[in-house]
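@channel anyone free to eyeball this complex?
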Amino acid sequence: MKAAEFYYERPASVAEALALLADEERDATPLAGGQSLMPMMNFRLAQPGTLVDLSALEDLRGITLSDGMLRIGAMTRYVELVRSGAVAEHAPLLAMALPHIAHAAVRNRGTIGGSVALADPAAEMPALLLALDAQITVQSAEATTTHGAKDFFLGMYETALKEGELVSEIAIPVAAPNDRFAFYELARRHGDYAMAGVAVARRDNAHRVAFFSISDRALRAFDAEEVLDKGGSVIDAVAALAELPYSGDLNAAIPTKKHLSGVVLTRALEAL
Amino acid sequence: MTDTQTISVTVNGETASAAVPVRQNLVDFLRNTLGLTGSHVGCEHGVCGACTLEVDGAMVRGCLMLAVQADGATVTTIEGYGDRASALRAAFIDRNALQCGYCTPGMLASALEYVEGGGGADRAAIREHLSGNYCRCTGYQSIVDAVCDVIEGEGS
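replying in thread with the prediction:
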């Protein structure tokens, strides 16, 4: 239960961090908040050659508003999102979900960028970003690229992030007065990983329904979205979940995941 | 290969400098190098909360932070809360909010964060805040009682 050996670097600039990550001989892994990576290292599921601690990179922190987007630096900690008036006002879906993301002591360290880069299928943040049509900016030593959330989460712990790249910013379109959001998850203990969960957004009568903890990745339920866009019922929307690529986990097998996805969607839509 | 780095940390008001293996977590450093065995180690993967302690004014999991990450930081452990936690300590005793005591240092840390953060005597909110700390003895009821007592200004 102790991490294997590694080298540790705490670069003072993003450029320096990217140079370390680009050095193939180092087999480097970024360390953001460490609230998922450290357990994985303690279990020896992750054995990086070098840990590149991003905690000194102030350029990657902060919450700003520009061009109709709420821009959140990747190293912004969850606790900062919890305390942010801008998040509460412009990204109410995040504000709804934050109390369910781990526990207070973990939110004090964990970062939004770390969660996005790891893409744990049971994590809330990837699904929230899918529901919000967020943009994810990544930097490498050569270039800066922006991905739509819908093209970013590809599989279990798999994203569009390439070797040597860092997530630098998450941008969320600000909520309009008539937008409606709902979030619901079922967890055995408040703050633990959910057995199933969903984030729902309705903007200009277009619905986004994004699930987590029911498959190998966070995913949108396009069929259910279409039902809701056409004014269909909750029962029809739940029926449209049948073809999702479910997978089981330690908590629950596929039939349970299927059932719970309908439960969380029903409860979220009742609250929308 | 053992990568070692020298760190300087202020722990419970005293500055400590030491060479630490970079793979060593903060709570192991506090316990094994500084002899501060009040912070307990349970699961070592951030689930149980037994190692919860304060770094730069925020309660964190001591097992999910490397000692080397605490270089330049101010750390407070159960040995150092002093008067800040005296009301909680008394209420924990009055309410029998600890039995074996293994979870108590972390539980007290989380409760202290809630009380100092201005949390109300709302049992659901207290439970939510303490949800990251396992207790295998008390059933939590008496712990929530103790936190409520402190907020409502009751007890000794």
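from a first look: Helices of chain B lie at 26-33, 86-94, 104-116, 123-129, 141-152.
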